[in-house]
Write a structure and sequence with these properties.
With about 260 residues, the protein is α+β, with helices and mostly antiparallel strands. It has helices at about 1-20, 25-40, 50-60, 60-75, 85-115, 160-165, 170-175, 180-200, 245-260, and strands spanning about 120-125, 130-135, 200, 210-220, 225-230. The protein has a 5-stranded antiparallel beta sheet. α3 crosses α4 and α6 (about 160-165) crosses α8 (about 180-200). The termini are far apart.
Length: about 260
Amino acid sequence: MAGEAVAESADEAAVQLDVMPSASERGSIQSIDRAANVLSLFDQNTRTLTAALVSERLGLNRTTAHRYLQSLQSSGFLSASYSPGPLLDQLSAFVSARQQILTLAPAVMRQLSDHTGLTAVLSFLGRSGAVVTLVEEANEGTIVLTVRVGTLLEIKAAQSRVLLAFQSDPGVAARIHAELDPAEARYEASELARVRRERIAWADLNRAGLASVAAPVFGRHDIQAAMALLGTSTILSPSDRKAERVRLLKAAADHLSSLMGT
């Protein structure tokens, strides 16, 4: 019995060791938390950080505080003078651009929906495809095709293809396409090349009777969003790439891009 008890205790200890994070893992998380705390010290009265200030406000010794400042500076979060660095500027511009789109897009999309009689959708790129962010449903017709805000679209969705086609970093598409088999990945690569040439993308989801087409919305430096129309295959068809509704979609996406300062 005693031997069994010892064995059980050993097994329990092994389970605990498997479940509990290692010291290095706990340290990594603590480092992120501390870095966030350091960056949170910026406010309207604190535009530059010092080891003394970080030490005093966060209760760290000065050597540790200085080490965090140096690490954040080398990573781009802080400048050489320990003021906000280029990476924070980049993130700020990104968030600002998205907020600008969310402010400007509804009116453009409403007009597009009214003129086409179809539902207009705007999506941003998520971890593995386009994420629906804004929807303007058609006001006319007895049947309304729509999609819920927050929906993660498939890789072969029109909006996902647009967002991947115009990424400045080709590694983004390569990472997302990694889940496809080699033949599918090659096909998607050829489709993205077509999207870049035509500045328009069609869905390829094998859903009978349904179709969607998307166009890119650019910011000052890169693609920001994809704008799309949802409809039936009798109204929207890849075989009719110069149809009036497609032309209106391109014009609306270009107009929103111009409003973004491109």
